[in-house]
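SAMPLE LOG
Freezer: B-3
Tube label: C17
Construct: single chain, 481 aa
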Amino acid sequence: MSSHSFEKISGQDQVVELANTKGLGAHLQSFKAYQELYETSVKSPEVFWDGVAKDFHWFKPYTRVCQWDWKDSVRHAWFLEGKTNLAFNCLDRHLESQGDKKALIWEANAPGEVREFTYKQVHEEVGRLANALKAMGIKKGDRVGIYLGMVPELAFSLLACARLGAIHNVIFGGFSAESLKDRILDCRADFLLTADGLFRGAKTVALKATADEALKLCQAEGHAIKACLVLKRTNQAISMQEGRDLDWQQLVSKQSSQCPAESMDSEDPLFILYTSGSTGKPKGVLHTSSGYMVYTATTFKYIFAYQPEDIYWCTADIGWITGHSYLVYGPLLNGATCLMFEGVPTYPKPDRFWEMIARHRVTTFYTAPTAIRALMREGDHWPEAHDLSSLKLLGTVGEPINPEPWFWYFNKIGGGTCPIVDTWWQTETGGILLSTFPGAMPMKPGVAGTPFFGIEPEILDEEGKPCELEEGGYLCFKKPW
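STRUCTURE (predicted):
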């Protein structure tokens, strides 16, 4: 197997094989190793997932790994009777062994502003914010809308809600007042976290003004939120409604950094996230605690071949499921160092991504085909001007990637030595279902790859009967994950 050989399969189809990938500490070194683990995961799921779940902290051990009921209704549960907390597993669990390790590197929209947080510092920030949420009256089971730009406080908000057992509903900062109103009403959120505004490229977006309009619309439909916490980010003029709106910095700064994590039942709700609405009315998807925790952590570890020294960058906004699972929860559950970016890839110049990779020495880069295609059109001279040799692994998410941008990404960004994981999944799935495994198998541009552990895909026709892929049909899955 050469370092990067191409083999024609049929027509324009090509398979890319990589051997001796530079510095990639893949957890699976061969396809045989993948097959053995996969077979165990589908034939003995309780044995497989029990072995994985033991690495996490449980306030109370679970009595059974999984339970599926297909007779009366499609119901399933994971880690029955177990008690845990995602924020505790993301932060507290790492404090003794790597409290001084960088957890989050945040870079602002405008070049030159960078903030770094160790695991200990993130733990303190989340504790203060959780206590501020308590002071607002937020408790376990409450629904909290979060309408922020890509600032560190957005990540802290997810973790603070998880710490208290409050159910977070993140609404993308680019959405309109009508979209914000719809999501607040649909999940019956009683609290909102927002900011005066956000920076996006050369623009300043007035978040608070949009939030005010959305809350008026909510009130007109009979739902008034109890409190709104407002972060200063852009320092633009805003209105603050007495008795409802609270200053973020003032309230949080008064709080203790120590806040005990709520003991959550394995099937307690963690968050609600709405689909984009691009193919119909947005659907509110509910993800619960322990199954999501174990699955996102495990997919991150294997698919991104995580190693403790890695600098991992997922460019997704936390307003989408990719940001939830593979910028916040999955990486932090593994004790990883994450890069988080407030801005856009072409501001102030089309080399912003490549300049940041070189400066932060990013090892793992996960982005969308849309961004790759747009940056490819800007020309090869932008990435060629920067040292991208730190990269070990590339990833794509959000849509299919056709061979032309795939090869550009592989050769121009990865230097022909970095595996590409083309990941397929959805808001509904919570984590990656199909992907290549770096170091264990060849890659076929435009094809997501093999099923993850425990995933049994099947193609069904209109009548729900199995059919051949060539015939066309619906991609379905035999069992829960």
